[in-house]
Sequence to fold (117 residues):
Amino acid sequence: MAKLIINEQIILNNMKIKKNIFSVAKGLMFSPKQEVKNGVLLKLTGDFNRKKGATVHTIFCFYSIDILFVNKNGKVVDKTTLKPWTLKYTPREKCRFIIESYKNTFNSIPINSKINI
Fold:
C-alpha cells in the first residue's frame, strides 16, 4: 500500500500498487467500490512505456474514475475523468505512472504538480 501526497496533503491513504503486466492491464476493471475509492498506482514498464505512455480505457469499470498521468520525475503531465465504458484515452505526454481513483478525487490537483508516493 502507498500514500499519494501533494503539498504535504494526503490525497489517497491506501493505494494499491500494481507492477506486473497483468495487474497493470487490469487497473480498476471489475474492482469493488472500496478499491476504487482507495485508488491504485500503476507502474508502467516495458511495452506500456511507449511514446505517449499507456492508453487507458474504462471497459468493465463500473464507476467514473479520475486518472493522473505522472512522469518519471513525479510531475503530473495530464489528468482526466472517464465515464464507465470509455474506449480509449491517451495522455498528452509520456508518463511512467498512472494513478486511478474515484471521480472527483483529483479535482484540486493541477497539471505540473509534483507528487510524492
